[in-house]
Design a protein that fits this description.
The complex is a heterodimer of chains A (301) and B (268). With 301 residues, chain A is α+β, with helices and mostly antiparallel strands. Chain A has helices spanning 12-17, 50-68, 72-78, 83-108, 113-116, 121-125, 211-214, 220-236, 240-254, 268-273, 275-296, and strands at residues 3-9, 23-29, 34-40, 137-142, 147-152, 156-161, 166-167, 194-198, 203-209, 260-266. In chain A, β6 and β7 form a beta hairpin. The relative contact order of chain A is 0.17. Chain B has one domain (32-224, 232-255): von Willebrand factor, type A domain (Rossmann fold). Helices cover 35% and strands 16% of the residues of chain B. In chain B, strands 1, 2, 3, 4, 5, 6 and 7 form a 7-stranded mixed sheet that branches. In chain B, α1 runs parallel beside α6 and α2 (113-123) runs parallel beside α3. The chains are: A alpha+beta (301), B alpha/beta (268). Chains A and B meet through β1, β2, α2, α8 and α9 of A and β4 of B.
Chain lengths: 301, 268
């Protein structure tokens, strides 16, 4: 049985500028599956409702996965046979659900004069309404016998399977144009999704996070090691979720000062069964980090 | 539990500044916004003697000054590329200013500046020297040379000019002594305003410090992405504005200088 936790913390830069937190996060643990999901609203001028957009993205994901699991037996049987096709359908359904939520919100809450005041009439006409709500989305789903994930835009998805390695399982196909954050509000958003599917390994923990977490690290290695530490601590300490919230709060204040969201689902029993191996990984990682630093400080001249 | 019960838009609850020192997660430190400063230094034979001696001394003194620039909210890293007959990095990757120790340089050989430009272009990449997740600013690139390149520098410059980090980086150059060619240095920086010249040991020390510290300060500044009318401006405009500001500040400094030192080329 999985457990989970999720938190979104406002970044120091957004506190200073009076901007609301643009991130949303959630987790769901059910009888047949668990979901970790985060979304990061773009927060710039034309995405003036992206805090709502990220909330709708998270809701749309949970609704969509629930819908696919309506007939549990059928889904669990057919999904592994054609996972690529099904994940594409899930992505498209999430986009459709998100657009429905956006349209409903816009109908109930028309754009105000104050929101419009930042644009000339001509500029405002050129912004597609869904762009007001532009957001990224990252989700990981642990089912019985398989794990899969999906992502549009920046942010990270890290998994720790029963080999104890913290890895980013998503292979990027570079479909997103360079330097442009892909978004649920993009025309043809489905083509910007990346994903993964694994059915040969057992999942100990999966983490979805917005880019504010990643950018608070000095290296990719540190970022991966961080997830190994959390996984090892979750196995030994039920209270550790509170420590994670404290840590991401610290990172949102002292790192790049962006909003930070982290959502996690984990299997406490599998983590406990592999505690020795996880602790060993943590120690190995510390040693490797020290070696990397020593190598870096060796002058070539 | 309903599946939407756990949606969090902004979690409150952690006491923001109350952190435990024995937190296992403190093993992975928090990185502030980070900036890489590249120094490209001519170590060819003509730099031998006073020029190189002075440069070594200034660079040793400069490290604590740059440390102060970054300490508030930016992690500054240094990468030093030397070029003579060969091109060599002082360290195999950018080193945090807190850990950086200057290795005194020696001068000999010819001036392979084109090869240095190519090497810099190769390393200014997310897959190489600019791979830190916390990297938040375009790099500062500071070239120092006392002479004319002995290789095809234009081929190297062409490679560099196609690199986006170079394009948006803050570029400055220092010509040392009479032989350094300011026009060629302006080709590197893209503007004459960020090219300075030192004809004496005293000037060399001043110029290196002023240019490096000013460029670091401007480079690590989060400039607003809006103009006077509150309209958003493109990233390209922010980088252009930074380069212009650096040019203005350097020229203001140069204009204030009175040269009372003995020039390099007559007796130094």
């Amino acid at each position: 049985m999985f457990k989970g936790f999720s938190n979104s913390v406002k970044g120091a830069s957004h506190e200073q500028s009076g901007l609301v937190c643009q991130d949303s996060s959630a987790h769901f643990v059910g009888e047949y599956y668990a979901v970790a999901v985060v979304a990061d609203g773009h927060g710039s001028k034309k995405h003036f409702r992206s805090n709502m957009g990220s909330k709708f993205a998270v809701e749309a994901t949970l609704d969509t996965i629930a819908n696919f699991y309506k007939d549990v037996e059928s889904f669990e049987k057919t999904f592994p046979l054609n996972h690529k096709f099904v994940i594409k359908r899930i992505n498209k359904q999430i986009i459709a659900n998100w657009n429905t939520k956006v349209a409903a919100h816009l109908e109930k809450n028309p754009v105000t004069a104050q929101e419009k005041s930042k644009f000339t009439d001509e500029e405002f006409e050129q912004i597609p309404p869904e762009s007001y709500y532009g957001t990224t989305l990252i989700a990981c789903i642990a089912g019985r016998g398989f794990t899969f994930g999906l992502q549009i835009g920046d942010g990270s998805l890290i998994t720790v399977f029963d080999d104890g390695e913290a890895v980013n399982p998503i292979e990027y196909d570079e479909s997103a144009p360079a330097n442009i954050t892909a978004s649920l509000c993009n025309a043809g958003a489905a083509s910007y999704f990346n994903g993964f599917y694994v059915d040969k390994k057992k999942l100990i923990a999966a983490f979805a996070s917005t880019d504010g977490l990643y950018t608070s690290f000095g290296s990719d290695n540190d970022f991966l090691d961080y997830h190994t530490i959390i996984t090892s601590q979750l196995a030994a300490n039920n209270e550790f979720e509170a420590a994670v919230l404290k840590n991401i709060t610290k990172r949102s204040h002292f790192g790049t000062q962006d909003d930070v969201s982290l959502s996690c689902i984990y299997d406490p029993q599998l983590a406990a069964d592999n505690l020795d191996m996880l602790n060993k990984k943590v120690e190995e990682n510390k040693k490797k980090a020290a070696e990397r630093k020593a190598n870096m400080l060796r002058s070539n001249l | 539990m309903s599946k939407n019960d756990n949606i969090k838009e902004n979690t409150q609850g952690a006491s923001v500044l109350d952190f435990d020192d024995d937190d296992p997660l403190s093993a992975t430190s928090v990185s502030k916004k980070s900036l890489v400063i590249f120094f490209l230094i001519d170590t060819s034979g003509s730099m031998r003697g006073t020029k190189m001696g002075e440069l070594n001394t200034v660079m040793e003194e400069l490290i604590p000054e740059i440390r102060r620039v970054g300490e508030a909210d930016t992690d500054v890293k240094l990468a030093v590329l030397t070029f003579s007959t060969d091109v060599k990095w002082m360290y195999s990757q950018p080193v945090n200013i807190e850990d950086f120790e200057w290795t005194r340089l020696n001068a000999e050989g010819v001036t392979s500046m084109g090869a240095a430009f190519k090497e810099l272009s190769l390393r200014m990449s997310r897959n190489s020297f600019l791979n830190s997740p916390s990297l938040s600013f375009a790099p500062v690139i500071f070239l120092m040379t006392d002479g004319y390149p002995s290789d095809d520098y234009q081929a190297g410059l062409k490679a560099l000019q196609s690199n986006s980090w170079y394009k948006f980086g803050l570029k400055a150059a220092l010509g040392i002594g009479q032989e350094a060619n300011d026009d060629m240095l302006a080709e590197f920086t893209g503007t004459k305003d960020t090219v300075v010249h030192a004809y004496s040991g005293g000037q060399l020390a001043q110029m290196i410090k002023v240019v490096a510290v000013t460029a670091s300060q401007i480079g690590s500044k989060s400039m607003t992405l809006s103009n006077e009318t509150g309209e958003e401006v493109e990233n390209e405009d922010v980088f252009a504005a930074k380069q212009k500001l650096l040019g203005q500040q350097i020229q203001e400094f140069v204009g204030d200088q009175n040269n009372g030192d003995v020039p390099f080329d007559i007796g130094w």
